[in-house]
Amino acid sequence: MKSSIFTDKFKIKNSIKLDSGELIDSCEVAFKTYGTLNKKKNNAILVCHALSGDQFCSEINPLTKKKGWWNILIGPDKVIDTNIFFVICSNVLGGCMGSTGPSSINPKTKTNYGLKFPVITISDMVKVQEKLVSALGIKKLFAVIGGSMGGMQTLEWATRFSNKVNVAIPIATSYRHSAQNIAFHEIGRQAIMADPVWNNGNYYKTRGEPKRGLSVARMIAHITYLSEHALQRKFGRNLQNSNFFSFNFGTDFQIESYLKHQGSSFVERFDANSYLYITKAMDYFDLSIKKGGLSKVFKNSSVNFCFFTFTSDWLFPTSETKTIIKSLNSSNAMVSFAEVKTDKGHDAFLLEEPEFHATLKGFIQGQIGIHRV
Amino acid sequence: MSKNLRTDLFVISKLINDKEKILDVGCGDGNLLNFLFKTKKADCRGIEISQSGVNECVKKGLSVIQGDANYDLDDYPNNAFSTVILSQTIQAMIFPDVVIKNLIRIGRRAIISFPNFGYWKVRKDLFFGGKMPKNDILPYEWFDTPNIHLCSLKDFEIFCNRNNIIIEKFICLGEKGNEMMTNYFSNFFAYQVIFCVSKKKKN
Description:
Largest sheet of chain B: 7 strands, mixed
Shape of chain A: globular
Shape of chain B: globular
Radius of gyration of chain B: 17 Å
Strand order of the largest sheet of chain B: 3-2-1-4-5-7-6
Helix content of chain B: 25-40%
Structural class of chain A: alpha/beta
CATH superfamily of chain B: Vaccinia Virus protein VP39
Oligomer: heterodimer
Radius of gyration of chain A: 20 Å
């Protein structure tokens, strides 16, 4: 495992067979760890990031110089206490923060993959993570945890590698992407592909990146991460610069300015092709089509589950999680679930939510006792 | 450990055999489940409506789902549990009849406890005081009470008979949660009752 300037890297020697049937050679996984692996090697927690996340879940992100995306939850004496746990977080396959993805150099052609990169799935991402976890000498993870797409990976771990996971904590997620979710992703992808700079994915050596398209994609997606109530509370109809309408198509409202900022800051750290591949992977995700239905997927599962949803999350509503719980109940699985009251929408899983953090902390404490960490 | 357990819950715990599979509907802070897990090696699950309750349960390592017994019992398969417990909650259900039928569908038997509205002091409050009865387990005012479907021991017996529900056993408790020695005039003297019921087996 080698260290580059900003991240650790693990190279998978053998080629990996993807769900699409294609093989991927010399796959690299960029990752970050926090805390120390104990002697029994039973204190490892794998943190799975969401669509726009990365391996820097705690401390300061060395690239953006901002706090890691789950710094609020992970660190010494925090809910996921790095004095106790060894936390692993890796950039997903298809990502753009050091793991092999469409912006990586194809070892065969010595040029960027672009759209030559094979289409990937959530289970492909998890297969790659499993190689990393094994390489770190961990036979069984104490826990896998993640929100949104990270929750999909968590569910995939709990079904595909159920014997390698003690505890699974899927947050604000679902067993499958709904039609509405796919629809929003497709608009995002169309925005990227409509940007002339995108050039069929060949922009790495040309005039720069399809920033306009990617930023529109991010703006659309960002609305789905919030709730109407939170938008109204934060922005209302407030004007950005003056007390008067500009009577042109510049930025009048604060909400417009906010979305533009979300878009423009996102394009500085994210690759447009990665966005296409990762959103597609989420759209393909559906545990219910595996092995004859959702309840069979979880049959005889020894994993201890704890689900969280948020009342104002309309992207991954509570009803989706309840469908999973129903299947888990009929499989006699160990499952806990809490629905957190908040108006912050889907993004609540990343934010200060005392009730969510308290219950999560309690659950982890309870499981420490059971699994003798 | 039983010292920490409410006396009526301790009486319920004595009805549970070793290694049973239990669902506690409205399990609160999980004290009964935790007690059954530790003393009877029971395989325990819970449903609790409040987040603080769920929090206390998961802290104890219990598997508990935040949910509403009015709606979420439908999600459980038939005969998934050996015993389903509903303590001091039936009177607050929107559709108690549906809930009871669900309990004996999910579990091979159900243990249901509730305050007896036929208790003599309750009758006295209404008869002499002319006011809605209040006591330790019915502490609310008429306008803010969650107890919308109160019944007496007799009402419950009639309900069971009409709905082909077998009453395996009932235990009467006094005001201190103590088990009463005799069931003599129980609808008059019992402060609380605990019913063990099951569905009639089809021939």
